[in-house]
């Protein structure tokens, strides 16, 4: 993962998280991955999973950490915690 260690913030461990799409889109575009197929190749995450993540569906911590690691950002920069009343 590009030599960085990704730690999981305690607040995110037991809480659902959602992709910050604007941040994600900017980061993958910087790397030339503008289609979901290119993003899947870049991240090693299947296209179907990326579509689900982009729709705001549940994200496994493994996929979240992989995205953050490949894009070389903190997990909290790429994902936001979903508040209980927003579900």
From TrEMBL:
Residues 40-78 form the HTH cro/C1-type domain. It holds the Pfam family HTH_26. Gene3D superfamilies: lambda repressor-like DNA-binding domains. GO terms for molecular function: DNA binding. It comes from the Bacteria. PROSITE patterns: HTH_CROC1. CDD domains: HTH_XRE (cd00093). This is Helix-turn-helix transcriptional regulator. It comes from Phytoactinopolyspora alkaliphila.
């Amino acid at each position: 993962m590009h030599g960085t260690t990704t730690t999981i913030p305690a607040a995110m461990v037991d809480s659902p998280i959602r992709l910050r799409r604007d941040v994600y889109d900017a980061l993958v575009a910087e790397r030339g991955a503008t289609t979901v197929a290119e993003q899947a190749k870049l991240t090693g995450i299947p296209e179907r999973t990326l579509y689900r993540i982009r729709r705001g569906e549940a994200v496994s911590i493994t996929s979240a950490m992989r995205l953050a690691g490949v894009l070389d950002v903190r997990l909290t920069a790429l994902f936001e915690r979903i508040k209980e009343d927003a579900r």
